[in-house]
Amino acid sequence: MRILIAEDDLTSRVALAGILRKIDHDVIETVNGADALEVLKRPDAPALAILDWMMPQMDGMEVVRRVRSLPTDRPPYLIMLTAKGEKADIVAGLDGGADDYLAKPFDPGELGARIEVGRRLIEMQAQFLAARNALAHEATHDPLTGLLNRRAILDALARQLSRERRRHPDGLAVGICDIDHFKLVNDTYGHLVGDEVLCRFARILESNLRPYDFLGRFGGEEFVVITPLIEHLNVRMLYQRFLSAISDRPIPTKAGQVPVTISIGVKIWSADEDVDAMLMAADRALYRAKSAGRNRICLADEFEDGY
Ligand SMILES: Nc1nc2c(ncn2[C@@H]2O[C@H](COP(=O)(O)OP(=O)(O)OP(=O)(O)O)[C@@H](O)[C@H]2O)c(=O)[nH]1
C-alpha cells in the first residue's frame, strides 16, 4: 500500500519509513504539513497518511481539517502521530477528522496493527464504492445493449430540454428509431440472433453519434436518439446518417448476415413542448413512417413526408 508520512523530525521519519518499507509498503516522505496536503490533493494520492501533529508551516490537525473538506468519494485514512498522549488531545484529533492516532515513541507492532486496520477499512470503502457504481450503472443502463435505459434516456431528455429553455441555443431534436419487422428476425433466426442484432444495431447507432448526442434503448426494438442541433444541420440529413448506416449493409451475426432497415420518427423541439409531448409527436411521426412503407424518416409537424 502507498503510505504518506508527514514528519519534520528526521530520526522519527527515518524510523517510521524503515518499518513501513520492511512490511512492504511504498512510502512517500514529506517534512511539513503544506507539502503533505499537496500530496493528498493529487488524483493519485496515497490512501493512507501518517501525520505528525506538530509540524512547521501547517500542523497535522490543519492538514486533517483541509483534507476532510476536499470533495472526494475516496477520503484517505488519516493517522495522527503525536507526542501528546493526553485523552483530551486524542479526542480533539479524532473529532477533527483523524481516523486513528499513534503515540510517540511508537511501538513497531502497534504501528503495523493500526496500518492493517486502516488497510481493511480502505478495502471495504473501495468495495462499497465499486458496488455503488455497479448499482448506479445497472439502474441507468440496458443490460442487453449497454445503452442508457428508458428511465435514463428520459432523464437525459428532461435535462436537455430544461437546458434549452434556459440558454435558448439552436434547438434539439428527438428521434425514435424502430427496427422494421423485427418480429420476423426473431422468427427467422431465433431470439438469440435477435438479441445479437439488437446489440450490433446499438453499436452501429453509437458509432454514428456526435459527442453531444444521447442514445438509449426505449424498449424492445425501439431506440431514442437526442440530437442537439448546434451545427444548424438539416435534421433530416442528421437522421439519414443513422438510417443509411443500418440499411446500407446487413448486420453480421453468428447465423450470417441479417439485412435490417429502420423507420425513424423525429420531433424538433419548438420551445414549449415537454418530454411527453416531444415523445408523443416523435411516436406519431414514427407511425407515419411505418405506414408509408418503413425504411424512412418522418418529421413531426411535416405535412408531407417528403422522403
Ligand atoms: N430478440 C429480442 N427480441 C425482442 C426483444 N424485445 C422485444 N423483442 C421482439 O421485438 C418484436 C417486435 O415486434 P413488433 O412490435 O410486432 O414490431 P416489428 O415486427 O418490428 O414490426 P414493425 O415495428 O411494425 O416494423 C417482438 O417479436 C418482440 O418479441 C429483445 O430484447 N430481444
From TrEMBL:
One Pfam family in the UniProt entry: GGDEF
Required cofactor names: Mg(2+)
Coiled coil is among the record's keywords: no
Response regulatory domain sequence ranges: 2-119
The UniProt record lists the keyword Phosphoprotein: yes
GO molecular function: diguanylate cyclase activity
EC number(s) stated in the UniProt entry for this protein: 2.7.7.65
GO biological process: cell adhesion involved in single-species biofilm formation; negative regulation of bacterial-type flagellum-dependent cell motility; phosphorelay signal transduction system
Organism domain of life: Bacteria
Reaction catalyzed: 2 GTP = 3',3'-c-di-GMP + 2 diphosphate
GO CC, alphabetical: plasma membrane
Location of 4-aspartylphosphate modifications: 52
UniProt domain GGDEF: residue ranges: 170-302
Keywords tagged on the record: Phosphoprotein
InterPro entries: CheY-like_superfamily, Diguanylate_Cyclase, GGDEF_dom, Nucleotide_cyclase, Rev_trsase/Diguanyl_cyclase, Sig_transdc_resp-reg_receiver
Enzyme class: transferase
Protein name listed in UniProt: diguanylate cyclase
Species per Swiss-Prot/TrEMBL record: Thiocystis violascens (strain ATCC 17096 / DSM 198 / 6111)
